[in-house]
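Technical annex B. To support the medicinal chemistry partners, we prepared a structural model of the target in complex with flavin-adenine dinucleotide, based solely on the information shown next.
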Amino acid sequence: MADRMLQFVRLSQHQPDKRAAAARRSDFGEIYQRFSAERASEQSSRCSQCGVPFCSIHCPLNNNIPDWLKLTAEGRLEEAYEVSAATNTFPEICGRVCPQDRLCEGNCVIEKGFESVTIGAVEKYITDTAWEKGWVKPPSPVREVPHSVGIIGAGPAGLAAAERLRGRGWKVTVYDRYDRVGGLMIYGIPNFKLEKEVVLRRAEQFAAGGIEFVLNCQIGRDISLEELRAKHDAVLIATGVYKARDLGGPGADLAGIVPALEYLTASNRQNLGDAVPAYEDGTLNAHAKRVVVIGGGDTAMDCVRTAIRQGATSVTCLYRRDKANMPGSMREVSNAEEEGVRFAWLSAPEGFEGEGGKVSAVRAVKMHLGLPDATGRQQVEPIPSSAFSEPADLVIKALGFDPEDLPTMFGEPGLTVSRWGTLTIDRRSMMTQLEGVFAAGDIVRGASLVVWGIRDGRDVADQIESYVLAKASSPALAAE
Ligand code: FAD
Ligand code: SF4
Ligand code: SF4
């Protein structure tokens, strides 16, 4: 049915409809509606079925995108789901949260002049449909094998590894210090990008498939890494990065200046129905406040848009470069602008003003873009005598994340760290310096993306299996 495809010359690109900004501002529901069956088929048919698909090459999972687009165009959705699920543990989540403009869609060959195929929206449509039709099944091994793995961290990296090894019959135990499964997919990413039910239904499937979750359990405090190593054939560290980059300057210790992740976690917990005292007492709640968010990445966009939904009186994003140089996804910036966020471009904070121990304004200075540095990025320099005050009752610092101070985390001097503070692994085997202890996801890469966590988790599962099988078949190794 080749004539079904190549429709990009006839059909224009349609992203899924967005809810009106006025409606979005007052609730935390996802903002994109779902494609209808007709729209998904039509949009899929725009693909030109490239022999060398750049979309797949630039997808971290190398998804077989042209194949599932063609199957969707032909209405063969169950097969489309099988092809999609073969390379991606969470296609419906990637369809929602991947920055497609920088990955698959940004590299679609019909992008120039015709607008790319809406790959992410189709991927989400296929798997949301699969859930409705009951095609998504728990991991179901053909036979049990006598190997066990202990996974520290129930974020995308840990879960992707867990699903792969459980599917091959391993005994899999996932430990997490939090009370829910999902890592930053639950407590970082806001509902309006990823409704929590989408993550929690996966967690339930995994548990139904025999993956054991030990929650509220912090490795290094409640159980030592040594104990895990003794209990399992291999251990995977997939603990992510959580140390917020900080901001100094006069007044930095005033009340009302909070880190982004604390703020977002409180909001996510509140939306999940948890009791959140810091939200209720106003510490981590933007309601009726003038809010200033400092930073220009995706986390800053999540903060400004959360503050709007909490009923802030004004929300301003302070960023030291201009719009064209923002690190965050342009799609998210547009969404924030539509929802009423004001951007103060080329503005860098220098300190904070306060009244009665509470912040009342951010003291900032205007910047101009100078010459590019060795990396090609334009440097910013302050403009003399351009200082100004931006009034604020709540300031949210969204400047990025670093790993915790390792290796003290597990009290294991054997774990070596890079100069960026990430865990060092052998690039091929993905093993740390500790025998049988592997690492994957943000703890190795630094702050990254869900899709890279999935990729790493799938890859490390293969490496863990190779290691344990080699050890089991070699008496010399097994004796170590
Ligand atoms: P995590 O998701 O961080 O999971 C690590 C888990 O390990 C956590 O559950 C943690 O509780 C647990 N843990 C840590 N230490 C211990 C310990 N000692 N014992 C037991 N458990 C432990 N990516 C996107 O692709 N799209 C987005 O839109 C997006 N938005 C984001 C928004 C925010 C606010 C943030 C902070 C990140 C966002 N990301 C986004 C990035 C993405 O969430 C991460 O790259 C991804 O979750 C990393 O996966 P991970 O499995 O390595 O770690
Ligand atoms: Fe695109 Fe992400 Fe899906 Fe890959 S996983 S096809 S990058 S949306
Ligand atoms: Fe289809 Fe675009 Fe991928 Fe080519 S690059 S296969 S047109 S989605």
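Notes passed to the chemistry partners:
The domain at 148-241+403-478 is CATH 3.50.50.60 (FAD/NAD(P)-binding domain).
The longest strand covers residues 358-372.
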